[in-house]
């Protein structure tokens, strides 16, 4: 008859822990969960990065041997792209992409003059890095054999 009460009162004895031992497994779990949360929630947007840093030194690249694209700021985070002769590329990014590829292809394969060896992006120091990166991506995707593009920064 007292069997029911005996089952309820029975408690396993707790294992005594030494005060110097501490289980840090939950703390490690929380740290990794927070790390994963911040990595997933953060955005990697190069357009939110600041302006092009000032050049301290670099390679000397001849503009005569380069297909040059000028990147000039025209207001709030907007730029205008120009050819070496001063003519502007389209302001529509889709059309602009095709025009850049045509221009560089023509410059690298010049039949009437000396063919160009490099591509140089010449930008004002107020141009956002994201715009330079966008133009570099267009060039890099279209020209696999092109080893690098050079960036020249106009100092104010």
From TrEMBL:
GO CC terms, sorted: plasma membrane
One GO MF term attached to the UniProt entry: transmembrane transporter activity
Subcellular location field: Cell membrane
Pfam families in the cross-refs: ExbD (PF02472)
Principal location listed in the UniProt entry: membrane
Transmembrane segments: 24-41
Biological processes per GO annotation: protein transport
UniProt keyword list: Cell membrane, Membrane, Protein transport, Transmembrane, Transmembrane helix, Transport
Entry membrane topology: Single-pass membrane protein; Single-pass type II membrane protein
Family: Belongs to the ExbD/TolR family.
Protein name, per record: Biopolymer transport protein ExbD/TolR
Source organism per UniProt: Rubripirellula obstinata
Classification of source organism: Bacteria, Pseudomonadati, Planctomycetota, Planctomycetia, Pirellulales
């Amino acid at each position: 008859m007292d069997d029911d009460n005996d089952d309820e009162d029975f408690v396993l004895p707790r294992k005594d822990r030494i005060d110097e031992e501490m289980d840090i497994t939950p703390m490690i779990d929380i740290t990794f969960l927070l790390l994963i949360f911040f990595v997933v929630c953060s955005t990697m947007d190069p357009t939110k990065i600041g302006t092009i840093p000032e050049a301290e030194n670099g390679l000397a690249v001849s503009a005569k041997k380069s297909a040059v694209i000028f990147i000039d700021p025209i207001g709030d985070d907007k730029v205008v792209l120009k050819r070496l002769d001063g003519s502007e590329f389209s302001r529509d990014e889709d059309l602009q992409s095709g025009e850049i590829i045509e221009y560089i292809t023509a410059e690298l394969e010049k039949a009437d003059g000396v063919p160009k060896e490099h591509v140089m992006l010449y930008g004002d120091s107020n141009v956002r890095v994201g715009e330079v990166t966008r133009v570099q991506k267009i060039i890099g995707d279209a020209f696999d054999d092109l080893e690098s593009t050079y960036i020249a920064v106009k100092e104010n």
